[in-house]
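Contributing new records

If you add data, match the layout below exactly. Sequence lines come first and carry their own label; structure lines follow with theirs. Keep one chain per record. Anything else will be rejected by the validation script.
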Amino acid sequence: MSVPITPDQPPANHLLSLLPPEDFQRIAPLLQLVRTEFKQVLFERDKVIEYVYFPCTSAFSVLTFLQNGTAIEVGTIGNEGFSGVNLLVGTEYATETTICQVAGDSLRMRTSDFKNEITTDTPLRRVGLKFLQAYLSQVSQSVACNRLHTIEERFARWVLMTHDRVRTEQFHLTQEFLADMLGVHRPSVSLVASSFQQAGLIKYSRGNLTILNRTGLEATCCECYGMVKEQFQRVLGLSRS
């Protein structure tokens, strides 16, 4: 179910909030508020992108698939950005598969409308390119992180990034999903989650993860979290805490 929004509604998506008020009011009729559900496929690799999604309280995972069907997360998107960044360079096809990792609300725009809005040097195109710059930095950092850092460090980084995006202390994440996102086996995630819980950093039960000690998680994660956070702050003026 989708709900139209009115121009006087302030955007819950940070990227859209960067638009001049008159520009957001103009494109507001093109946006619909929708619920994006856990594991919902927003678009698939090599297929046409029908909608652009601007997460509000949801978070997305960008996945690349190997020939054996294994999925590896190469990027995440939350309320700081939008899905379908490759539309900015003129293609209509997805280079990777994007799914919803944390259920929540999103603002949705038809791809045809989005493309019309970025054909010239518009405010939407300019903020979109800023997000693309920060997003590519995140993807590059994730490559190094997945290669060099421990599962404990990467687990903490992933939880912190998700916390930043959904702005709530509790969210639903299954061990199976976390294992896919981190590129490890499920028993490894179970061991890390158990050790974090014993240390008082999180509470984890039946797929529901609650952050108990954010400062402790920040001390546990690798430097990649801080580097990506700094990049988003510099490029988008986005404060993460």
